[in-house]
Amino acid sequence: MVVSPARAGFVLKSILATLLLCCTVTVVNASSPLFQNLKTGAFDTIDEYRQPDQWIIVMIWAHDCQICEREVGEYQRFHQTHADDDAIVLGITLDGEERKQNALDFVARHELEFENLIGEPEVVAGYYQLTTGSRWVGTPSFLIFAPDGELMAKQAGAVEVEIVENFIAANTQNQ
Fold it and tell me: Could you tell me the mean pLDDT of each successive run of 10 residues in the chain, 175 residues long?
C-alpha cells in the first residue's frame, strides 16, 4: 500500500494528538496544533488566526449536521461583516480524514470565506473538553475567544449571531 506523504503526516499528527489527549497531564489549548487547514493542508493552531483587537468565534461543525447546515450562512455573513473590524469566524470540522471530501463539499456549497480546519472526531471532542472543562455534546458547538486568546464563552447547540454580537459588544470594553 502506497501512502502519500501528506496522508502519512496527517495520520501521524492525528495519532500523536490522540495520544496527547489521553494523557492526563497534557494541557491542550488554543496553541495546540491538532487541526489541519482544509485549504492549505498545513497543521494550524487557533492562535495563528489571532489578530490584535479581534475576537475569534470558533464554530465546530460536521458536514451532515442539520443545525450546522442551517446556521453556517449566518456565520458566513457575520464573518463578512466583522472580519475587517472586531471578529472572525474560524470553522473546525470533526469530519476527519475519512470524510474530508464531504467537508470540502460543505465549504464549497456554502461558499465559506472563513478558514476551516479539520480534525478527527475524537481529537475535536477531546480538544473541546480540555479547553472548556465541559463534556462534549456535539455539533454545532461554539467557542468565543477574546482578542487576548482567553476563552470567554462556550455553547453546544445553535447560537443566534445576534447573541454573539451582543456578547462581544458587552465584553469588548473589558478587554
Answer: 52 46 40 82 91 96 97 98 97 97 98 97 95 96 96 96 96 73
- 105: cell is 463539499
Per residue, the 3-state secondary structure of 31-62, as one string, reads: CCCCEEECCCCCEECHHHHCCCCCEEEEEEEC
Show Cβ contacts of residue 24 under 8 Å, excluding neighbours closer than 6 positions. none
CATH number for 98? 3.40.30.10
Q: Is the dihedral of CA 54, 57, 58, 63 positive or negative?
A: negative
How many distinct structural domains can be found in the chain? Answer: 1
Rounded (10°) CA dihedral 137, 153, 116, 49: -150
Q: Is 114 left (phi over 0), alpha (psi -120 to 50) or beta?
A: beta
Residue-range definition of the domain harbouring residue 36: 5-172
- The closest alpha carbon to 54, from 152, 162, 141, 142, belongs to 152
Q: DSSP secondary-structure letter at 98?
A: G
**Closest by Cα among 15, 8, 10 to 122:** 15
pTM reported for the whole predicted model: 0.81
Q: For residue 70, which of 127, 140, 1 has the smallest C-alpha distance?
A: 140
